[in-house]
Amino acid sequence: MKSTAESAVYINNDNADGNGTELITYLNRDKSNSASATAAIIDADGTIETADVKKIKGRGNSTWGKAKKPYNVTFKDNVTIGSMDKCKKFSMLANYQDDSLSRNRFLYDLSDAVDMPYASDSRYVDFYSDGYYWGSYQMCQKIDTGKTNLLSDIDDKGYLNDDGSINKNFEFVCEVDASATDDDYHFTSSSGNKITLKTPELAPGDKGYNEVKNYVKNKFDSFYNAIKSSTKNLADYADVDSVTKIYLINELGKNWDSGVSSLYFTYKQDENGNWKFYGSPVWDYDNSLGNAKGVEWDLGNIGVNDYEQYSGWWCKYKDKGKNSNSTNNVMNLISRNKNVIKAAPQVWFEDFVPALKTFMSSGVSEGEIYSSDVYYNYLKGSAEMNYKSGWLLNTGSWIADHSKLNVATFDYSTGKYTVSNTATKYSNNFDGKYNYCADWLTSRAAWLSNEMYADYEPSNPRIENDLNNDGILDVRDATALQLYIAESATLDIEGVKMADINKDGIIDVRDVTALQQIIAQ
């Protein structure tokens, strides 16, 4: 068999424990086991790069308990995989519970395309160790700091002054993580959320251990209170743009873990020197984009009965319920914050929609996000090998039904939302699972566009009644409207919203007459 993956990664150590045990068998015995190794990386064009692995070990929480294990890999020196920027630290995602093998890739790349800080770049790879094939993996930049890592501008030693004292202000990365254990460097915030410190990461006895933890707790509590407040300005505590984007990523995916785990925030100075929280990096979306059923009793408690469907709001109900205002779920509160509500339609139409149009196009293989067919072509051979080697398409009752979908579309030139009367049926193989995921994503985007369309106000408003958006109000705008009414041409989103000139709720020839009268003064 021949793969179409972007790279193959070989990591070898046939004596990982000193007793003749090959690497993966040894690592899989216990997540705490680690080993060094040698490696070779072969890109699709045949280029071979050899490297030394400083450390490889298991990773993940619930995913570690699955048959196909995920790993973290630290190379001794920087390496490049499938044209990614050189890096030392990678996470190898097994995507065992995602039979499209792509949900994390789609949303990571989308976060990059909408200019979120610290979007993890990744590639589809085939993974081999000591002569064995272990499946199709997603090789991602690990969430870590350092000049050649994902958070390249964050100094993990910034909490220390030159004389060794604790700095008055410093950068940090933290995660909302309900599953944090005593082994993690974490605290419980005043709101009851468990917060794990990812950087700086200190151990008991390290200088500043308690001071750093208390500093982060105080900053996070202030951020949380600003999110929840009806009077405070979130912009005084956070970068509203990135916080809005991380909300929209979670809303688009209907992420089951929204506000519960893998929700990262970075605290640093903005361009004006003000210390703020940034919503980023994004992480862990295998239970999103229509993949998971959810927990029946949990959904019943919060009053959501359409979780598997691409329609319906999600984040503002997660852990709250439709009839209660009592919640400490951070993403729930972000989704209902007045600053985020105001920013969301603009961010959606000006940042997300252009990126999603690229995904829905064909043959785009450059830039931050590719078109769906390009991802498929990179993955199809790798996925075939993955599933023929014994990994499962359907990994349990947790996975939703992926057999059919009434696909939705949104016409951005008319503002019309359409749901197909006929359900598309998907085969029980990788092709079917991949296409279901891609169609669910684009249908969800269509539903969200329809919901936010009326509230969208462009950041650079144009001249009133300038339907063709050329910066001039003249007879060409009336002609553009005539062509639109005759279905001989289209208008952009804002043009359609302006087209009802006489405000009677109907776009017809009377609007052309009204516009001609306005032009003639």
Give the arrangement of secondary structure elements:
Layout: E1 7-12, H1 23-29, E2 34-43, E3 48-58, E4 71-79, E5 87-93, H2 103-113, E6 122-129, E7 132-141, E8 172-176, E9 186-188, E10 194-199, H3 209-228, H4 240-253, E11 263-269, E12 275-279, H5 296-302, H6 330-335, H7 338-360, H8 372-388, E13 404-405, E14 408-411, E15 416-419, E16 424-425, H9 430-452, H10 475-485, H11 493-498, H12 509-519
Parallel strand pairs: 1-6
Antiparallel strand pairs: 1-2, 2-3, 3-4, 4-5, 5-7, 6-7, 8-10, 8-11, 9-10, 11-12, 13-16, 14-15
Description of the structure:
With 521 residues, the chain is an alpha+beta fold. The chain folds into four domains: 135 residues, no CATH class; 170 residues, no CATH class; 105 residues, no CATH class; 45 residues, no CATH class. 30% of the residues lie in helices and 19% in strands. It has twelve helices and 16 strands. It has a seven-stranded mixed β-barrel with strand order 1-2-3-4-5-7-6. Strand 14 and strand 15 form a beta hairpin. The radius of gyration is 25 Å and the shape is globular. It starts with 6 loop residues before the first strand and ends with a helix. The model has no long low-confidence stretch (mean pLDDT 94).
